Amino acid sequence: MGDLKEILYRELELKISINDEGISFDPLIFRHLDLGGRYQEEVICLFEMAYETHAGIKFPSCFRSPHGLIFNLRWDRRSSYSLIHEQGTYYLAHHGEKLFPVDFLQRPNYYNLKTSDGSSMSTIAQYIQEGSVLISYSNECALKEKGQDCKFCNINATKDTYGESEGIGWKTPKQVGEAVAAAYREYSGGPRRVNLTGGFVAERREVEYYLDVADAIREHTGLEDFNGTAAIGAPLDLDVIEKYKEAGYRTIASNIEIWDRNIFKAICPGKDQQCGGWDHWLKVLEHEVDVFGHGRVRSNIVAGIEPKDSTLEGIEYLASKGVIGLATVWNPNPGSALEGHRAPEPSWYFDLFRKISAIHRKYGFTYEQLYDCSGGTGILSDIYRIEDETLPVFNAKVA
């Protein structure tokens, strides 16, 4: 299996490069693809992750590498990576040289369904693959009103660009319950999870809404444990955390985003001023572990804004407290205050993710815990599945 692991790690390095540098293509190249029919289209419900906006032009959601890794499709016409279409096949290329044929992802059947109030389920519950469903209940952030948006975030700019054209707005608990139930029926043969997230809202409103959503999901799925992650802002009242657990969420997430306390204050002014500051975020995360348990709490760091050592220090500290610390490749999104900046090189990220994975192993986090907190298509999940030889390609190799 050594050679296969080496191949997969090369594909993983390529995946990181694509996340970092994007892919160049003619935005009309997908006119040859049955997008929104056979193949899953991107629904821009929360953040624009491409380097340019493209309202009114649909792109595929993701694609799969020859050995099964799922790549994001981030459009950047400056990239040395590109998509090429020849004789009915799409290829990923680098400096014009074809690397491999691209396998776009099949569209879920539930995307064709509507909720009881006539809303398209594709705008309610985005399918992230591996049985994971994303609910972006709100596509705007109230921190804008105070001028306290996180500097890397473009949620409000994305709403202004895509909200009306994509038909994206506030989701009612009933809509969420019906859409999650439809997704869960379709993917009943394997692990399933739902991640509930959105922009910053008032603490009391957030708690009440999340509880109503949990009730609706349980009602429509018939599941007491629906494997949900509640992604919330750090509450000032620690007692409310138990309410999320009692409502039926299996995991919880409070994303600190930046580990260095001074950089956190500058980059995340709203999270600093509205949530009790950096020290209070740590108190919240540690209390969430007390309530939900070791490996059932997630916190993300946007990697590349602060030094690597700082990010690793944060991941190590969080892991020592039972928190799964994730890192994402920083994408200087269009419409964010940091638009036009540059993220670190792909090799910087590859080294970072290998070290984070080693920290997770050191503190006993399992792939199942990582999946429940974050899904199965991220870079850290890929590393776990490569090392554990649990990707489908390993079974195919044995056969």
Describe the fold and architecture.
- The chain is of the alpha/beta class and 399 residues long.
- The protein has two domains: 2-104, no CATH class; 109-398, TIM Barrel (Alpha-Beta Barrel).
- 39% of the residues lie in helices and 16% in strands.
- It has helices at 2-21, 155-166, 173-186, 203-221, 241-247, 261-267, 269-274, 277-292, 308-320, 346-362, 367-374, 379-388, 392-398, and strands at residues 62-64, 70-72, 81-86, 89-94, 97-101, 103-104, 126-129, 132-138, 193-198, 228-231, 251-253, 297-303, 323-329.
- The strands form three sheets. The protein has a seven-stranded mixed sheet, with helices on both faces. It has a three-stranded antiparallel sheet with strand order 2-1-6. The chain has a three-stranded antiparallel sheet with strand order 3-4-5, with no helix packed on it.
- A hairpin with a 2-residue loop joins strand 3 and strand 4.
- Helix 1 (2-21) packs across helix 10 (346-362) and helix 10 (346-362) packs across helix 12.
- The longest helix has 20 residues, at 2-21.
- The protein is globular.
Summarize the structure.
With 399 residues, the chain is an alpha/beta fold. Helix content is 39%, strand content 16%. A seven-stranded mixed sheet has the order 7-8-9-10-11-12-13, sandwiched between helices.
Task: Please render the helix and strand layout as text.
Blueprint: H1 2-21, E1 62-64, E2 70-72, E3 81-86, E4 89-94, E5 97-101, E6 103-104, E7 126-129, E8 132-138, H2 155-166, H3 173-186, E9 193-198, H4 203-221, E10 228-231, H5 241-247, E11 251-253, H6 261-267, H7 269-274, H8 277-292, E12 297-303, H9 308-320, E13 323-329, H10 346-362, H11 367-374, H12 379-388, H13 392-398
Helix pairs in contact: 1-10, 1-12, 3-4, 9-10, 10-12
